[in-house]
Amino acid sequence: MSTLLIRSGHVTSLDESIGEIPDGDVLIDGDTIKAVGRGLEAPGARIVNAAGKIVVPGLVDAHRHVWQSAISGETSPENCLGTVLAELPDRYGPEDVYAGVLWGALRAIDSGVTTVADWSHIITTPAHADENVRALRDSGIRALFLYGPPIGEDVMKWFVQSTVPHPSDVRRVRSELLGDDTARVTMGLALRGPEFSTPEVTAADFRLARELGVPISIRSGLPAYLARSRTIETLDRLGLLGPDVHHAHGTRLSAADLDRIAVTGGSIVACPTADVSMARSTGTSRFPITGRAIAHGLLPALGTDMAAGGASGLFAEMRRALASERERAIAARSTHGETPVHLTARDALRLATVAGAAALGLADRIGTISPGKRADLVIVDGPMASWRDPAAVVLESDAADVDTVIVDGVVVKRAGRLAGPAARRAAALWEASRRRLSAWTGLVPA
């Protein structure tokens, strides 16, 4: 831990009491933001020069299957079930989980993501869980490790009206590995919910999560599965909705569903690239849930979903959300349908920061550049930075424009390059895993 002073950047705090500070400073003491303003002094502090650059809160990827990063580019969201989930997991060892998660977390950091909700459904054995957690810790990212079902045993058993309860190993992980809810890596449960398991199993799984005192993430309103269950109606009937539940995807949630989530304090996580792709493959709505959620009083977070075949980062997801809402507005005018929501680039930045923090139950720690919060920040450079307009971060930036990333007060990317020992060995581990997997499947080329 050390004292850092980010000097002379265009600070976009997203904290309404602070706003934007041109030529602003951010003082970091250890893992915490101590002050935000102009002309801050900190004798002996390490200076990070942000002149001509834009300083924003760290991005929050609220739904990503990080383990799939070892096979990135090998599939797409619409054929995920038949390839990544059905053909590969039984060959995916703990060492592959470590390699994929480490590589994926570092890729996220490289693109400006400081916090990820790791929806991990590759936990075939306790060793898989341990390696997943170890990789997240080694990467330096802030993470909510969402312990999911072990699809490597039998994907159909776990995802077709499953009668099998969530693995009891979650109790061990909670008590032995992730018992500290103030740590950089914390725990939640990735549950199947009514679209994939029976109401009885869903109720038992929710009781388990609440007994452990951890957040719940489920995938709700997926296009291919709506006919099997009305997720929100089922959860409402069972009395399971609440502020500890966030719903990923949601493209086919109804207006009543969204109202019920809002009333019970739940959250929505849109994954625009994956959601649009899946919707088109099933002939349903071509728009992500973002605008509709906002219209019903929800502030949707954003996620990249499939590391194997989805978007490369949250910059792409923010732009996809903007483009989709503009397209939806045009469609609404031509059909006199639902009133569109006007979404700006600044709004999109809030979805990727403030909303993500709230969805993961971390709003008291991250999401804005505020004194007292954890020091998770991103400094963006490039031609757009000279505009001194944070909208440029959304409209023009990609990973190559991310100059500096700080997580918990630790610089994990500087001058455009990842820092630390994990970055030096991740590529070799990733390549070895891909070659190992290619010996068993045709998904990954040798």
TrEMBL record:
Protein name per its UniProtKB record: Amidohydrolase family protein
Keyword Hydrolase: yes
Domain Amidohydrolase-related: 54-412
Entries under NCBIfam families matching the protein: PRK08204.1 (NF006056)
Record InterPro entries: Amidohydro-rel, Metal-dep_hydrolase_composite, Metal_Hydrolase, MTA/SAH_deaminase
UniProt xrefs under PANTHER family: AMIDOHYDROLASE-RELATED DOMAIN-CONTAINING PROTEIN, AMINOHYDROLASE SSNA-RELATED
Pfam families in alphabetical order: Amidohydro_1
Keywords: Hydrolase
